[in-house]
Design goal:
Helix 2 crosses helix 10. The protein is an alpha/beta fold. About 5% of the residues have low confidence.
Length: about 325
Amino acid sequence: MRHLLAIEDLERADVDRIMARARSFAEVGRRDIKKVPTLRGRTIVSLFYESSTRTSSSFELAAKRLSADVVAVKSAGSAVDKGESLRDTIATLSAYAPAAIVIRHPYAGAANLVTGWTSAAVINAGDGKHEHPSQALLDAYTLLDRLGAVDGRRREDLDGKRIWIVGDVLHSRVARSCALCFRMMGAEVTVCGPPSLIPRGITEALGVEVAHDLDALGEADVVYALRMQRERMSESFVPSVREYVAHYQIDSRRLGARQLLMHPGPVNRGVELSPEVVDGPASLITAQVESGLVVRMAILYELLAGGEPRGAGAADRDAELPAPTPIGEPA
């Protein structure tokens, strides 16, 4: 792995290595001294053009747990506010010779562009509506860990598990990455939401089933709820929040006793999820946050310590990577 841009770029072996490495870092996390010297002397740049709590903080902590130095840049208050282009920002930060750049950007394909402007490894922390690969990897790790505890053995796959992704699929990069990752690991994935929030062509693009109501939700082993991303909406996609809640909110009546509940955060309590299920025994939401640290440590390890060292020509080679493919507009 030279970069982590999208789940669709990964092979199953890449995912398995990250899962195994994350398990080893989870063991380290149970020790009194939680830092390891793996990336001592290396610099990680965290560059976020959109708001973030979980992703930015866990990548920064992951780098520090690996003994790297961290330069954290938010667009607000930086030269970006003065009109500096993404390319010029990358040129400035590359002058510090970072080993990796973790970037979140509102436009699909931004992380891919950055690979052509720097010799650093590039990690996509979310690019518009395209992908959020580290979220999907930490979600897969969370499920393997929980299902393994239930089965009394280590799980290496999600074979036969049925996962429903419910909510604003159209605007969700998490939905795309999770659907690809879960299916790669053997799960059957269904996306569910109002027709206005389900992209056209998603069945062909991602190999998922589509539902427009929750009538068959009881068949799911895992329910993965998404928030409505109003910051990406230029028009109204549902008649009202009240109507959305009536038809698509996951509450204690709709969530079965044997089902697991996931959400990438932040949760809009009382909209996509009722408060009692957020805090209930089926919820893996806190476990997902915990998994984020060890999985992002594993990602940094795989990119910077687990393979061949990156040379000066890396940017030229990586500039040939294909641009992201959109799913489509709502049906």
